[in-house]
Design a protein that fits this description.
46% helix, 11 helices, 16% strand, alpha/beta
Length: 282
């Protein structure tokens, strides 16, 4: 199983130099991917621009949107061009994960419709593939034939069908390791029912915050970040991995459940977190 790490674009102690240092150090430590979360109505760095910056200072590590809330973006053509540009600049390292999202304020801020976001996302994915396949006149041509790797996220059958019909894999998002196996199995069944050979590439994520202040740092950040989901914010804060052994056990459990890549998201942009995480998992 691959082990990726989050680019800390949503944490309160990030700045430009730290983002670039984090990207360089994540690659040096041997993580498989740099991943970003996506929000609009929040004090965070924009996902695609952050990945482009990370790609400019790295050479090997994958650049992954996990996930991008695509339907509040009003132009599929512009999104296709942005993604293809990052892919071309980075030498084919972009992984574009998308989902419908659950924050109405993100949609209200752009004037995009919230109620039909799933249907529009299906149409966007088909259009992305068409644009990346050439003939539209919208370049640059992606490094990989047919465009960057696409992932679809979400726990509903509709989200899993979206992955099977349009994407190369499925991402579980914030599910626990206890529930991942059943969800991944369901995604695999829907994949087969849609006539796809083999099995989808599966990913999941977990929050980690190590060191003496790890628990307190995680609670402050996650309670604020997930405040929009009310009581569930406390569950997110209490589920963070705060010891090396908890990280190692979670890695073992996800690997046993058949996960292809686990993304460890930080709760602080302090580069020491990367060293602590690398020591725990590598």
């Amino acid at each position: 199983m691959d082990i990726g790490v989050g680019l800390p674009t949503t944490v309160p102690d990030l700045n430009g130099p730290r983002l670039l240092e984090w990207a360089r150090e994540a690659e040096r430590h041997g993580f498989s991917s740099l991943a970003v979360l996506d929000r609009l109505v929040y004090d965070n760095y924009e996902s695609l621009i952050a990945l482009a910056a990370a790609g400019a200072v790295t050479e090997r590590i994958r650049l992954a949107a996990t996930i991008l809330i695509a339907p509040y973006r009003d132009s599929t053509a512009i999104l296709a061009k942005q993604a293809a540009t990052i892919d071309a600049i980075s030498g084919g390292r972009l992984v574009l994960g998308v989902a419908a999202g659950g924050r109405e304020d993100d949609y209200a801020a752009t004037g995009a419709s919230y109620a039909d976001r799933g249907r529009r996302l299906d149409a966007m994915l088909a259009e992305l593939r068409d644009i990346w396949s050439g003939g539209s006149g919208i370049g640059p041509e992606p490094v990989t034939s047919g465009g960057p790797t696409l992932l679809a996220g979400g726990h509903s059958p509709a989200a899993m069908r979206r992955a099977a019909r349009h994407a190369d894999g499925w991402i579980a998002g914030g599910s626990s390791v206890a529930g991942f196996g059943a969800l991944a199995a369901q995604a695999g069944e829907i994949w087969a029912a849609e006539g796809r050979p083999g099995r989808p590439r599966t990913l999941s994520l977990a929050y980690a915050s190590l060191g003496p202040e790890g628990q307190a740092t995680a609670e402050r950040y996650l309670r604020a970040y997930y405040a929009f989901i009310g009581p569930k914010a406390e569950r997110a804060a209490s589920g963070v991995l705060t010891t090396p052994e908890a990280v190692r056990q979670t890695v073992r459990d996800y690997a046993a459940a058949g996960c292809d890549e686990l993304l460890l998201f930080p709760c602080s942009a302090d580069p020491k977190q990367l060293t602590l995480l690398a020591d725990a998992v590598f």
